[in-house]
Amino acid sequence: MCRWLAYSGSPVTLDELLYKPANSLVMQSRHSRLGVEPMNGDGFGVGWYDGHAPNPGLFRSVEPAWSDRNLQELARHVRSGVVLAHIRATTGTAVQQTNCHPFRHGQWLWMHNGVIDRFLELKRDLQLAVAPDLFPHIEGTTDSETLFHLALSFGLTDDPPSAVAAAVGVVEDVARAHGVPFPVQGTFATTDGRHVWAFRYSSEGRSRSLFRNADVTVLRQQYPDNPVLHDLADDTRLVVSEPLGDLRGAWLEVPESTCLVIGDGVDELVPFAPRPPG
Questions:
Q1: Which of 52, 121, 172, 259 is spaced 20 to 30 Å from 79 by Cα?
Q2: pLDDT digit string, tens, across residues 165-183
Q3: Domain residues for 265?
Q4: In a domain? residue 278
């Protein structure tokens, strides 16, 4: 379906995240190892915070990530301590810029790997649950953007885990009325530029893959001669659809039905479950 990464830590250039790892996100756009399909060529996007404006920068394109020279240029020069990046494999909606992730609202970014099953049947009822003042800001046609605006409607900016639980709860409630047994599949990430929240959940209990990096200081002790680890800051936190390399012990799977909270150089795993309406 899609592949994504979320980074929090000391500022790095985007190419350190998107191009330089052995199994980089750009590499995954052609040769994904754990995705539903190996090719993720239906567009890409990257959002970042650099302190120059209250809201994040955003660059999205319908070009395949592996061949976009503008992305290469941008990645060498943009430096940030919080980054969301996404490569897209459409599940049926159009290949257009407004359907590329991450999605932005104010200082918030959002991205998703997965699907809302039979979304076109559910779309009208789901979008009627979006707050009236937010509805005009839905620009594209994806299930992911609708889910983002549902989360915003239920208080994403105040309590992200609770808001996402309510949004997913609404989707499952609407789906039941339409006879869709397992509507939600995916991994989600959102950030306000200070903290990152990542979710792994599916209605069926068989979510798409999601990993986080192990503590860098521990890895240095295990691999004292590895030069890559000495270039990483202690506060490096990465959440990825699939590992960026093959170093044993470097990547930890995020459990099913879990919310990962990252901020201030630490991370916390907490259980996640949808909250039914009412």
A1: 259
A2: 999 999 999 999 999 999 9
A3: 2-271
A4: no
Residue 1 has a pLDDT of: 63
10 Å Cβ neighbour count for 50? Answer: 15
How far is residue 249's CA from residue 244's CA, in Å, rounded to a whole number?
Answer: 12
Q: Is the pTM of this model over 0.85?
A: yes
Helical H runs in the chain? 14-18, 25-31, 69-77, 119-128, 143-153, 160-177, 216-222, 227-231
Neighbours of 162 (CB within 10 A): 14
pLDDT, tens digit, 9 for 90 and up, residues 204-232: 999 999 999 999 888 888 888 787 777 78
Angle of helix 143-153 relative to helix 160-177, nearest 10 degrees?
120
CA-CA distances (angstroms) from residue 74 to 23, 55, 178, 241?
A: 20, 18, 44, 23
In a domain, residue 277? The reply is no
